[in-house]
Structures are given as structure tokens and as C-alpha cells.
Amino acid sequence: MLIIGLGNAGRRHARNAIALGAEVIGYDVRPVPMAGVVRVSSLAQGLALRPDAAVVATPPEDHFKTVLECLGARIPTLVEKPLATNLADGHVLHALANKLDVRLAVAYQLRFHDGLRAMRDELRRQRGCPVRGVIACYAAMKDWPPCTYSRDVLMEFSHELDLLCFLFDATLSVKVMPLSRSQNDWTKYHLFVESTDRCYKVDLWLDSAPIMVCRYVRLYIAVQAWSWDFEEAANEAAYRLELEAFLAGGHLSDGLGALRLVEAARLSAVTGKWEEA
What we know:
By secondary structure, the chain is α/β, with parallel strands linked by helices. The protein has helices at 8-19, 43-48, 60-72, 87-100, 114-125, 153-167, 232-247, 256-271, and strands at residues 2-4, 24-27, 37-39, 54-56, 77-80, 104-107, 131-140, 172-178, 188-195, 200-209, 214-221, 224-229, 275-276. Strand 1 (2-4), helix 1 and strand 2 form a beta-alpha-beta unit. The longest helix is centred in the C-terminal third of the chain and has 16 residues, at 232-247. The two termini are 34 Å apart. Mean pLDDT is 87; it is low at 142-152 and 181-187.
């Protein structure tokens, strides 16, 4: 397996790959040593070794060009969220993957938390029942530069947007209520989400904070309450399960749903109207 980018995410993927018995090749423009990883001096050199799979864990602005190279070499690719920094680029990547018949998936490890999978299964069992609830994330951003589209929503909050796609098998519309006077300040906002048939109605609260405070989901499916809270230990296990599922050909996020919701939310912030994702 080739790991591209050996920062926190890349090193975690490398450790999990090694634990799964994979031989790991690593590439990073920085001289980052890591035990058990064979370093290569360029991405081209790593791809020339014909790894069974690649993990792209570079900064988001590099995802598009790096994934293009991996797919062009016909290497199954798992890319850290987000897939790309805009929806158009995401479609380009999936079109190429489909054309070349190469697997492409996006790493949203929250999909591998048992509590969230149980919620999804219950929603499938009670399809058509009314659902009301809240998804919330209060995330650390104090060391980031002034927020932009690519930094806050895609870097941190896209997990919650992908959860909407994971949990609700429906076409979703969104409406944004700005919690700041500046339309360019995406550090804090309230996103209303509902399905086309208005069966699903969910409030999405996203807010920056000095430290990671909490992530949680509260749903009422018909009249039954379902609850999930983020736990770090479960999250580490989810990372391992996600990589194992990718290597085994299991279903992961395509990353496009989160990008569609971001685009719809950006448009809603301008129009003040409901926008379909």
C-alpha cells in the first residue's frame, strides 16, 4: 500500500495498514521518518512500484491532482476527506474512476461507529416514518487562519454533512441561518435539512470552539429516541475498520454527497431560500 502524505492522518493509516499485515510505502515532501514504512522520493516512484492500493492524506488543496495521478495509474484509491475542494472536481475524479474502472472512496470513519450504523439500520427498517433530530459538532479551530469555504466546512464539518448522506437515503434540501453578520464567516451556523417528502427534518449545528467540545446525534425515529456521542476510543477502532473495509472492497462514502450539501448551503446563504443538494 502507498500512503501519500505522512502527517497525522497518513501516519494513522500507515499504522493500521501495518497492523493488517500490509507492506507500506510512504511518500511525503517532508523528511518524515516512520518505522515500518519504506520511503520513496516521489509520487511517481511510489506509483511505479504498482501498490495494491493508495491512501491520499495530503492537504485538501492537493487532493484533486494527487487522486488524478493515482487513478491514472489505475491504483484503487482512498482519499482523506474531503474528496476535493469543489463539487465539479469531485465529479471529474469519479468520472475518471468509472472510465478506468478503478475504485475510489473517501475516508469518513464516522460511518464505522456502531451507534451510527445502528441508527442507519433503524431508519431503513422504518422507512417512511417521520424523523426529527439534531446533529451537532463543536470543533477546534483557534489556530486556523480566517475561515474560508475549504477550511472549515470541508476540513472539519464535512463529517456531519456526510453523516446526513449516510443516515438518510433521500434527496435532501438545506436552508442556512447565519449566526454571524458576515456571510463569509462560516465558523458558526445553523443548517436546516429536510428530505423532499419532508419526512426527514434535521437541524445541523456547527460551531467553532477553542477545543473539540463534542460531536453528537439525537434522532427521534417515529416516537423512539436514538442517541450517539463521539468517543475517541471508538473512533480509533473506526479508522481501522474503515481501512480494512476499503482493502476488502466494502462500501465507503463517495464523498460527493457532502460536497453537494456544501454547495447547496453556500447558495442558500446567499439566496435565503431552501436549496436542493
